[in-house]
Design a protein that fits this description.
This protein is mostly helical. The chain contains 22 helices and 2 strands. The protein has a two-stranded antiparallel ribbon. The protein is globular and about 60 Å long. The N and C termini lie far apart (about 75 Å).
């Protein structure tokens, strides 16, 4: 009787739920029909996007691992959606909602004992910089506390992704899955960038861009000597700059992945080399000198590092040499195909690079951009009357225009292009000091992890992650803080830092290459 009553009550509840969902579906269909009839398809598109965000959010709360990959996809394609919806700010902040849900889902899993918590060895020195940034929210020189809150978001909101990256890897299958997903995404985005560079900005851009992103989406450069015009591709992003930063990350990750996969498994090797070919071709077509210079630099540094950390004693170093050789072949084939099929596209880019980077060129900007210009901007920071105390976090950061638009006022007239100069302008003289302290702490503790992984299959990937962190936190910051403030590069940086510190725990699992000297001792070596 009790079971029958419970079953009847359950059927009644299910009927009520079904009826409620049916009525909701009819209401939504009616509203969408009205939008279609009125020709307001933007509302319909925004509603569909909203449903996608809700679906991703539910997936994150149900399983944070699967939700994390949905978040990554949204992170990389959000700009593309935003361009077609008139730079809608709901879309811009959707990724932050998804990231917050991911943090909550991971926290619940840790509280239930299903995931391990990560204690970063550089946490103390980083906390000093964090609390300085928090205090600067209440700097009386800041026009509004909203600038400070935006600054906190830009600097620190994605830091918890480090804990997520650490918990993401339970075994080597998780690591390979992460690499495969991101190599696939890099291939797609690079291919889209290549097509846009050849066809022009009309591809992947609406006919009319929102006023605040119109210039970013259709930038052009003119070579100083030959006066050739080249358009800068944006791919899935709103600006060529964000695409360029992503390409540097993709070059570093694909090279590290190729080294790891060649030492560990046959799975995914072809995808890695295809990605390297596509990313290198997109880099050449990007029209960004910084992207080209740092990509070439990364290839040279990583190649030398891979050979240094190769398992020579186990006679497996030839595998990494093979990975380097195959990567070079993949790059050569990609560029050769581009030259043969689209000589005009590559010709204008090559002219721009050679005319502005060649030291012998009368229009060379190499010395100016490498030293004179960054030093000038750093010195300009000390001309600010408040360089000792700063003007408040967020007053010279990316996104300041959105806060000023919300407040219906002009953006603060402060800021320089130098990264360390920006830290001085926002946080005062203590800002760059504490930045250097925590970044050096991160690099030293990260280097210990890399050395521990020397002569293992994980070394190429670990070395690549540490090199990326060095570029973002030191080399890029020397020129501009925009790289760290860029949400795509920032999010990936913190995820990869978590992965780096997790890699040593995978050494206890079966390895294709002996990873400790104890193996040699057992065989009398």
């Amino acid at each position: 009787m009790i079971r029958a009553g419970a079953r009847a009550a359950g059927m009644r509840n299910q009927a009520f739920v079904s009826l409620a969902l049916t009525l909701l579906a009819l209401a939504v269909a009616w509203e969408m029909g009205g939008w279609i009839a009125a020709g307001t398809l933007s509302n319909l598109t925004l509603s569909v996007v909203g449903l996608v965000v809700v679906a991703i959010g539910i997936a994150i709360l149900r399983n944070w691992r699967n939700g994390f990959y949905l978040f990554i996809v949204w992170l990389l394609f959000e700009d593309l959606i935003r361009k077609y919806l008139g730079n809608n700010m709901y879309i811009y902040f959707a990724k932050d909602v998804l990231a917050g849900l991911t943090y909550v889902s991971l926290y619940v899993a840790i509280r239930r004992g299903r995931e391990r918590i990560f204690r970063p060895p550089f946490l103390f020195v980083f906390s000093l910089f964090f609390w300085l940034g928090t205090l600067q929210v209440f700097n009386p020189l800041s026009p509004s506390i909203l600038y400070g809150l935006m600054g906190l978001k830009i600097y620190f909101y994605y830091v918890p992704l480090m804990f997520l990256g650490y918990a993401l890897l339970r075994d080597q299958e998780d690591l390979q899955h992460f690499l495969m997903v991101n190599l696939g995404l890099a291939s797609v985005i690079s291919a889209l960038g290549i097509i846009q560079a050849i066809r022009g900005p009309g591809f992947l851009n609406p006919a009319v861009l929102a006023p605040e992103i119109r210039e970013l989406g259709a930038l052009e450069k003119v070579t100083p000597i030959s006066h050739a015009v080249l358009s800068l591709p944006t791919a899935t992003f709103v600006s060529s700059g964000r695409f360029g930063w992503y390409l540097i990350f993709a070059v570093t990750l694909s090279l590290g992945s190729a080294g790891y996969l060649l030492l560990h498994t046959k799975r995914g090797r072809k995808l890695a080399y295809v990605t390297i070919a596509l990313v290198s071709t997109a880099t050449m077509l990007s029209g960004s000198r910084g992207t080209v210079v740092f990509s070439v630099m990364s290839a040279l540094v990583l190649g030398a590092g891979f050979l240094w950390g190769a398992p020579w004693r186990w006679r497996q170093a030839h595998r990494l040499a093979k990975a380097i050789r195959r990567s070079f072949v993949a790059v050569s084939l990609g560029l050769a195909a581009l030259v043969l099929i689209f000589p005009a596209s590559i010709g204008t880019r090559w002219a721009y690079y050679s005319e502005t980077l060649n030291p012998d060129s009368p229009s060379s900007e190499l010395a100016n951009r490498a030293w004179d210009y960054p030093m000038l901007n750093l010195s300009l920071a000390f001309t600010d009357p408040h360089w000792i105390t700063g003007n408040g976090i967020g007053t010279a950061s990316l996104g300041v225009q959105y806060v000023s638009a919300l407040l219906h006022e002009r953006p603060p007239n402060v800021g320089v292009e130098s990264g360390y100069g920006t830290l001085i302008v926002e946080l005062g003289i203590l800002g760059p000091v504490l930045w250097i302290v925590w970044t050096v702490g991160l690099m030293l503790s990260g280097w210990k992890v890399v050395r521990r992984l020397k002569e293992t299959s994980f070394f190429p990937l670990a070395f690549s992650i540490l090199w990326l962190a060095f570029m973002v936190l030191f080399l890029f910051t020397y020129g501009t803080l925009a790289a760290y403030e860029n949400f795509v590069l920032n999010a990936y940086l913190w995820v990869l830092i978590g992965l780096l510190y997790r890699l040593p725990s995978l050494l206890s699992q079966p390895q294709p290459v002996p990873s400790t000297p104890a193996h040699a001792l057992r065989h009398g070596r």
